[in-house]
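Bench notes, afternoon.
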Amino acid sequence: MKQVLQNLKDGRTALWDVPMPTISRGSLLIETTTTLLSSGTERMLVDFGRASLLGKAMQQPDRVRDALQKVRTDGLAATLSAITDKLDQPLALGYCNAGVVAAVGSDVGSLQVGDRVVSNGKHAEYVTVGENLCVRIPDNVTDEDATFAVPAAIGLQGVRLAAPTLGETFVVIGLGLLGLLTVQILISNGCRVIGIDHDQVRAARAATFGASHVPAGADAVAEVLARTAGIGADGVLICASTSSDEPVAQAAKMSRKRGRIVLVGVAGLNLSRADFYEKELSFQVSCSYGPGRYDPRYEEKGIDYPIGHVRWTENRNIAAALQLMADGRLTPQTLITHRFTLADAERAYALLVQRTPSLGIVINYPQADSAGAKSNTTQIVAADSHAQTVPLAADNNAPVKGASGVRVNVIGAGNYAGRVLIPAFRSAGAAINGVASRNGVTAAHYGRKHAAAFASTDAAGLCASRDAQAVVVATRHDTHADFVIEALRNGKHVFVEKPLCLTYDELQRITKALEQARTAARTGARPEPILMVGFNRRFAPQVARVRSLLAPLAAPKALVLTVNAGMIPTDHWTQDRESGGGRIIGEACHFIDLLRHLADSQIVSFEATGFNATAPASCDTASITLQFESGSIGTIHYFANGHRSLPKERLEVFCSGKALVLDNFLKLRGYGWPQFTKLNLWRQNKGQEACVAAFVDAIANNGPAPIPLAQLLEVSRVTIDIAQELG
């Protein structure tokens, strides 16, 4: 299918062929008929992309501070790599989509196949959207009009926060698409509206809806005061998009005593205390479409807020905007300035770059045109709009066949898979056969970049593919076990990013599937499948040196590993017990494996102490003590309550009157070793490439698993035990 994507490096937009997305529980697959390009919001994205690296930095000072902090803790090379990789990822554009429901996931109850709906879906022939972000379109509202319901809901939420009453005077600063929709909503609410904009054409358009406007060159504050008999406006809605502080300053000066100011758009926030203090003004920033926005429980899991407690959610605001259209009180057709077909989407974005005056730019998706839409590049082969798999023509400079003869399919194309795992497999001499992701965009991006044969959203197909010997699983944690089992059933070698699984039941099912796969391999005279978990730290060069230094020493070892894990919000998916398993299972398993490797002995017991488990996130700060069969002991301090300026990982090893200290995989120092003092690196190396290389080598040479299966199962079992004890 076709989708509009932006290159963050230079701001260029292009029409890509990508696999059709898959639906999941609580979501819908929508066949798009019309999308709306918002000249305000999307121009900001284009301008950001077209800015130089310095320009981008100036627009995001918080990110600059984060980058400088990362340089101090992880080094310059790692930081530059992270920045360039981030800018290399394509951005899916659009948030105003109308179409027809093509399929529904489980647990969807309010909508069905064939319904016309509006959503915040992207500019793509098909989109998947959560149920709470989809609203049925009234019969007398066209698809073109319906796409305006999303920005209208943004304006409506701002109006609700301002709480206008019949007869009040409101000022709208900024008469772009959002501002003009807000003007109509306020007038429908019985308000007297004054519009302010430097563009007098837009101001005149506001007048057609019943608003008055401030003439060009006039003193806006004086005009508002004059029109309100010196009282001032009851409320001001700022719908402009600017970095200037002037809109907020103007709003304060033109408001009456105890007036209300709501920032719906974007403006500078260097406020004057005196302006607000003397009038006791209220100021509020409106959040997008309304309550539920950015709440994964609402948007992804479909958990609605009770209407008796939260009357207006983002879904209900969009529905209200549609009803205003159905009643004839909101007329989006008058705001459409340009229409394009999807094939000409790049021309639509060129309007933004050229600063051509525009408001609503509509993109239509005629079915007859979908097969003939022009591709973004000759590197992508045209694909059927319904296809879950898109063939990719390899870059002429990239070898398609790996030197090792090993071909792998990669399921999951997030940041870690794309930035670390896939390049590591290429470096190890493996060929990337196919890449799959849920939305298809990242699969197409990383597939092209690393010379994959195809991109897909059909994960099951990659598990069954005969063109690859191995499957790499790098998806969300709750899907690991099922993909591992499916790949093993198809006789594949499996590399799964940690954790192996989340529960005892999953561990048992994986063990059984592996036994069956090994039996089938022996029966068919094939190599037995290798199961590998991405416990890369044991493969780091400095860890290998520590291990070699400890090998001749028979005495028990004392191991202390301090991890400054950092805080992750409680609503992040890794904190969710169902999808992420919590951070002990999700990440601390790395460190349990590392100590198990260095002790070179089975874990016989453990103790785990953490904060009181009042919430899932309280379990991500804990001290874990491991007792090994050899008499060695290990302690992991996994803390999420430290400061980010402290480097993340520090390993201390004590044995036979000697000690070793490894700081954040950069500096290794030895104390009491006759022929060893230090091993320092210019760049962090946590062993990812060596870990992958060992897996590829084992497949290519029919060798043993790089990590013994017994250790993988042991570490997985102990990790689950510890997580359960901590709550």
